[in-house]
Structure formats: structure tokens, C-alpha cells
Specification:
The chain is mainly beta and 380 residues long. It folds into 3 domains: 110 residues, Immunoglobulin-like, CATH 2.60.40.420; 104 residues, Sandwich (Immunoglobulin-like), CATH 2.60.40; 104 residues, Immunoglobulin-like. 4% of the residues lie in helices and 48% in strands. The N terminus is likely disordered.
């Protein structure tokens, strides 16, 4: 079944909207739905699209100016030209209300700022992804992402698409919360209750990956407990049994902020053992920004958010499986890098090379974003 929404007079629009709602919400079997949407003077008509979970959705955007349209949560984006129609198709797997925004061409760039087309890419070979999520006391959630036919390649982020590699995006309750550069990732301070977690596989160039026309993604739910009060003294350091050291490099992120790369000697990241008894030389990293705890580091690469303009200090400390800081020769095993965040537009190149430490780098400017409306996905 195909439902179509088009620009009509005020008198005709009301019954048409009712028909669209009935088409999206009626019946039990997934449907294939198409909607024609008009962007005029930066106003979307109609401004709400309603479908049901598992429907296959096509949105045809016709705009009176060049730019790009972004459906948040589903990470769907398409470029528009004045007087032409741009279409996007996706499976409505996640429920909720998702923002639709417009980026005028003069200020528009893709979400990652690379200037590359963000049309989805069909996988060249069979690819699969599986996701598990385990909640800890205190609001944290440990993610484990297992893929076949595909690998994480953070050193190639912002570069051209290479078959079988890239990075992932992670969403909580339909909202994107970050980029993932390895099989293990930590989500900090989630709200108590049942949370929906989704990860998508993306190419180096940030295009969403498709398998047989459907997003390469995995979803799960996890119940987050109340954080409760933080009590107890700071844990004593654990002296490493052999020489241990760490270094950190910061690379400019085309989306704003930085990507850090940690190199450790005498130490092994072991996210699968976090919370278990101490094992010599194993553990994870703790990342702080300007002295404030930011998140855990389970892999050598991590995306940091865009920061306020000025100089910032990033510190990475190595910890044991049971959350105690490592020391060597009585000194903490940690690394520090200073970065500069500016408010002027960057060069759009994306990440720097993966060589030595980079300081005084400039983050990309935020694009102009025009709210248009929303996509509503209701449970089937």
C-alpha cells in the first residue's frame, strides 16, 4: 500500500492528513509508504509524517532552494536542488518522534563535515551486526558490537568508502549520542528505566551501510538502574608489575571536536573484564576534559564532542579491571594532550593523519539548521 501526502488547500489538507494517519496506523502487516513533502520558504508541508514500526518509508522532498534535509535518529540525509525532488528510503525500525531539519546550501555540510555525498551504500559482500548491552549500577551501560564481513577502521574516518570497513553510530531512544570506533563502547549516565539502544554501521565516508536494501544495524533494550549517591574514598593506585606507559594524540574531527588515539605499552584494553578482579596489565582508560571526568575508554580510539572555544586539556588515565588507577614508579600511568577549539570554520578535511600529537587545532563551525517538522513512528 502506498500513501501520498501533497500540498493542498487548507480545506483539503485536513481530510488528507486523516487519511495519511489511517494509512500509517491501520492494519497489522508492514506497509510500503511514500510521502511527497514540499519545502517552501523553509517551511515543510505537511510538517508531520506518521508511520508504524517496520513500515518501509520513502520521503520525496521538493525544495525551492538548494541544501540538505536530515531525518535525525535514523541518520538519513539527502541533498536538494531548487525545483527538484530528492528521495530517501529507509525501514522504520525505531519508534519515537524524530526531527526533520534543513541545512541551506550556503551553510550546509554533511553531518560529519566531509563534503561527501551521504546517500546510503549497499554492502559489496554479506555483512551482519549484533549488539548486546549490559547495565552497571550507576547509570552506565557496556555495549558489545559483533560484526561479520566488516571491521572498524577509525584511522580511515572521513576518507573515501572502502568495502568492508568503517565505524558505527549509536542511538539511545532514537537520538544519536555518538560515534563508535571499536567493538566495545561505554554509555555514561543514562536515565533510569528501559532504554532502547541501536547501532548502525557506516562507511569511512559516513554513508549508512545497507544490506539487501535495509540498514546494517542492530537494536536491543536495557534496563538502567538509579544512579544513587556516590560514596566511598578514592581507590588506592595499583603499581604495575612491569613498565607501563601511555601516550595520546588528538586529531581534528570534521564534525567538530576531536578524535583521540591512545597508544599504551605494557597494557591491554580488556573491556570484557571490566568490573571483574584485577589482572595484571589489563583494564580500560578513563578520559577527563579539563579535570572533569568524561567517559571510559574501551578501545584505543574515541570521538570527543565539540568544546567551548579556547584551550582544553584532555587526560587519559589507565585503570585496572576493578576501577583502580595504575601507577609506575609511584607515578600515575596517564597521558595528556592540549587541544584548541575555535569558532571559525575548519578546512573540511576531517581527521588529521594518525601520526604524532596535534595541538592548537580548529573545530568546524556549526551549520545553520532549520527545524522543519517530525517523523512519528508508532509501535505496530
Amino acid at each position: 500500500m502506498t500513501g501520498t501526502l501533497m500540498r493542498r488547500s487548507a480545506a483539503a489538507l485536513v481530510p488528507l492528513a486523516l487519511l495519511a494517519a489511517a494509512a500509517a496506523c491501520g492494519g497489522s502487516a508492514p506497509e510500503e509508504l511514500t510521502f511527497d513533502l514540499d519545502i517552501s520558504d523553509r517551511v515543510l508541508e505537511p510538517d508531520v509524517v506518521r508511520v508504524k514500526q517496520e513500515d518501509t518509508v520513502t520521503l520525496n522532498f521538493r525544495s525551492d532552494e538548494p541544501g540538505s534535509v536530515h531525518v535525525h535518529g535514523y541518520d538519513v540525509e539527502t541533498d536538494t536542488e531548487a525545483g527538484q525532488t530528492a528521495a530517501v528510503s529507509f525501514a522504520a525500525d525505531a519508534t519515537g518522534s524524530f526531527r526533520i531539519t534543513f541545512h541551506p546550501r550556503a551553510a550546509s555540510h554533511s553531518e560529519e563535515g566531509s563534503g561527501m555525498s551521504h546517500e546510503p551504500i549497499e554492502a559489496e559482500a554479506p555483512v551482519s551486526v549484533d549488539l548486546t548491552a549490559e547495565a552497571e549500577q550507576g547509570g552506565g551501560v557496556n555495549l558489545r558490537i559483533v560484526t561479520e564481513g566488516w571491521r572498524f577502521a577509525p584511522w580511515n574516518v572521513d576518507k573515501a568508502h572502502t568495502a568492508g570497513e568503517g565505524h558505527a553510530h549509536v542511538y539511545v531512544d532514537g537520538e544519536k549520542v555518538g560515534r563508535v570506533y571499536g567493538s566495545n563502547h561505554y554509555l555514561k549516565d543514562l536515565e533510569p528505566g528501559e532504554r532502547s539502544i541501536r547501532v548502525t554501521l557506516n562507511a569511512n565516508s559516513h554513508n549508512a551501510l545497507l544490506v539487501n536494501g535495509r540498514p546494517a544495524e542492530a537494536m536491543t533494550t536495557v534496563t538502567v538502574t538509579d544512579r544513587g549517591p556516590m560514596t566511598g574514598p578514592e581507590p588506592d593506585p595499583v603499581e604495575a608489575q612491569s613498565q607501563m606507559s601511555a601516550s595520546v594524540a588528538a586529531h581534528t574531527d570534521a564534525a567538530g571536536g576531536h578524535i583521540i588515539q591512545v597508544t599504551a605499552a605494557g597494557f591491554t584494553f580488556s573491556p570484557e573484564n571490566v568490573g571483574r578482579p584485577h589482572a595484571a596489565g589489563q583494564g580500560y582508560g578513563s578520559v577527563s576534559i579539563d579535570g572533569e571526568a568524561h567517559t571510559r575508554l574501551y578501545e584505543p580510539w574515541l570521538q570527543l564532542p565539540a568544546l567551548e572555544p579556547g584551550m582544553h586539556t584532555i587526560t587519559v588515565a589507565l585503570l585496572t579491571n576493578d576501577h583502580r588507577p595504575y601507577s609506575w614508579s609511584g607515578e600515575p600511568v596517564e597521558a595528556v594532550v592540549t587541544v584548541h577549539s575555535g569558532d571559525q570554520e575548519g578546512d573540511g578535511e576531517g581527521g588529521s593523519d594518525t601520526g604524532g600529537e596535534h595541538e592548537h587545532e580548529t573545530a568546524a563551525a556549526e551549520p545553520e539548521e532549520i527545524p522543519l517538522g517530525s517523523l512519528e513512528v508508532h509501535p505496530r
